Amino acid sequence: MIETHAAEPDHATDLLSRLAARTARVAVVGLGYVGLPLALTFARRGLSALGVDVDPDKARAVGEGRSYLRTVDGAAVRDAVRDGRLEATTEFARVTACDAVVICVPTPLTREREPDLSFVERTGEAIAPHLRAGQAVVLESTSYPGTTEEVLLPILERGSGLRAGRDFFLAFSPEREDPGSGVATHAIPKIVGGYTPSCLEAALALYASAFDRVVPVSSTRVAEMTKLLENVFRSVNIALVNELKILCHRMDLDVNEVIDAASTKPFGFMPFQPGPGLGGHCIPIDPFYLTWKARQFEFQTRFIELAGEVNTEMPRYVVHRTMEALDARGRTLKGAKVLVLGIAYKKDVDDMRESPAVRIIELLQERGAEVVYHDPYVPRVPRMRQHRLDMVSVPLTDEALETADAVLVATDHGCVDYARVVERARLVVDTRNACRAVRVGRERIVKA
């Protein structure tokens, strides 16, 4: 039950006036694919932004005016630092001097596919001793409904001795960053839910200072569920077209042609594109947050879980199609040389989190294939907990294309000349319809 106590008037008035005058200072904790663009957005809209991250390399790069993300303009970072609007640190104590603290840290899954909120918890514990009355704290990390109130709020109140809704303002606003899309952060409508009405008012004012449109909702739980719905919607529809892709292959139909034809209907249809599986931090992970929470209410999210199963199996389907294509050409997958194009999870980004290409490579190697990869944006894949790969991107030379038994397009980066790929390769296994415009050599293309 949300208490309806209001924050002290002088606290609210001071914060709102500083935001209106653009003299407010905003701390963004977590300088990854969400946090750095957000900090830069506040800075470019006239506020002072302080990035906080445990990684000293990121803090150093920002301090030197450099971007370490391909999707964030390095010149914009340099200009914001030069103008004194953006800086970065590893010291959490500095949030005391800020008017608002926005948390943008990862929310992965455990090995058991359950929510891992350790980053949120540790961040709350790190900033709590440095909170002061009148500040706004907003969580942007995706999680299940109730996280802000059930997990973050008690940590902040216990560590600071302050009360949310009376001494400081607490809210949730789901991140909606879309790397590689070209859509500016400030142009994406911002959903905001507050712990109390006064918390909502403060958070709305914070985001209104930097975003073109701010959309209030009635609670932090509604805001948290909104984010999950957005990603579950994509997961389910991608699973649908992935399943239809497999069926269309058996029926000797081109699923992309079917989707294009259906897209001409001006109502009741929204096109989704099939692929080799799901990638990125959101869509492969967020549905599991909701299914985990649903079990606490004795509810089974069968539709969502089935979509997850379909998408998770897509790398195996891709490998199976590759085996079939090689077999039709008198070659076995064992001992075959396979060049994988793209290991990032989506087009024209340098982010490989949860990329289906990683699983595809692992499956190919398990079956005895000799695998190399080329990705202009991911020069190296270090060994991590999630996978056992330790690889370096190879140059996309004519020799690399010509000596491969199969070239497998896992990510359709726009900088790759696919006509050249098809011309030089013996076999192209295309999981993204990247070769749709290639007219010469189509007999060497197999869709997967």
Question: Care to describe what's here?
Answer:
With 448 residues, the chain is an alpha/beta fold. The chain has three domains: 210 residues, 3-Layer(aba) Sandwich (Rossmann fold); 94 residues, NAD(P)-binding Rossmann-like Domain (Rossmann fold), CATH 3.40.50.720; 136 residues, Rossmann fold (3-Layer(aba) Sandwich), CATH 3.40.50. It has 15 helices and 15 strands. It has an eight-stranded mixed β-sheet with strand order 3-2-1-4-5-6-7-8, sandwiched between helices. The chain has a five-stranded parallel β-sheet with strand order 10-9-13-14-15. It has a two-stranded antiparallel sheet with strand order 11-12. Helix 2 links the parallel strand 1 and strand 2. The chain is elongated and about 80 Å long.
Features:
Rossmann fold, single chain, 448 residues, 15 helices, alpha/beta, five-stranded parallel beta sheet
Task: List strands and helices in order, with pairings.
Blueprint: H1 9-20, E1 25-29, H2 35-44, E2 48-52, H3 56-63, H4 74-82, E3 86-89, E4 100-103, H5 118-127, E5 136-139, H6 147-160, E6 169-172, E7 190-194, H7 197-208, E8 214-217, H8 220-250, H9 255-262, H10 286-295, H11 302-312, H12 314-328, E9 337-341, H13 356-366, E10 370-374, E11 380-381, E12 391-392, H14 398-403, E13 406-409, H15 418-424, E14 428-430, E15 445-447
Parallel strand pairs: 1-2, 1-4, 2-3, 4-5, 5-6, 7-8, 9-10, 9-13, 13-14, 14-15
Antiparallel strand pairs: 6-7, 11-12
Helix pairs in contact: 1-7, 5-6, 8-10, 8-11, 12-13
